[in-house]
Amino acid sequence: MNELVITRMNHLIDPNLHIWGWEVPVYLFFGGLVAGIMIISGYFIVTHKYKAENSALTFLPYLGIILISVGMGSLFLDLEHKLFTWRMYTAFMWKSPMSWGAWILMLVYPILLILSFIKISPMIGALIPGLYKISERINKPNILKALGILSISIGALLGLYTGVLLSAFGARPAWNSAMLWIIFLTSGLSAAAALIHMIAKNKDERELLAKSDNVLLIIEFVLILLYLVGLLTSSQVSNDAAMLLINGKFAAIFWIFVVGIGIIIPLIIQLSAVTHRIKHTSVGPILVLFGGLMLRFIIVAVGQYSHWSSAVLK
Question: What pTM did the predictor assign?
């Protein structure tokens, strides 16, 4: 999504509204997506499903590295003092979500790189034959089990962090919710399941992830409703923030793009596919990915629009 689209979107909400950047929502989306990829990869390893022919684990680590790099690049563009980024890694502040996130991201790359050695792609193996020797050393029951659990754990932390990063801002009522981290984690896992079952070659994996994504979409919808209920039953400023999504300036975009196009429609399509009423199609997964991206854009936007000045919310 480019700046022109974002500009038009915000103009539809309010012509005088401040135009927010695209970098942070894109980072949150790709962070959640990679978190889901790591959790699913770990599940495939722990359950030995990766041994199946044409398993998605052959390409998932490489895909994860590319996507997290895109997300990190987006975040880097948003930084004001880019040359001093390295200072984040000279200390660890356990009360700072940003510090936790920086160090979690440092673990993502090596874990994905190690996972890529478990099942070597024939094409990559032909280019670098020595990788098979590394693969033989890693493919031992105890090591694989540890790697699977580690991938699930770090993936979960990464997904949680994308929501905690926003919810820690108490001055922004729309962000200051305990539901935000679980919504982002579920959304990221749903997006990953959609992406993998759209491009996976193994039929059993596609079926499993399509069914899993349907469950995740239902859970995500329920969590969003609980998020809104939580805001409505809290302070007046939180109530006002919720109304921005329910029937306010962000309502149309939220209910159409996130709930309608991003959850309800793909859920109907994928339920029809898994019950064999229609053939599997890429339409559902693409809509899920679009909805996940829009969720981040709208949550980031409404959070910046909502604050403790009641005049702004009117």
Answer: 0.86
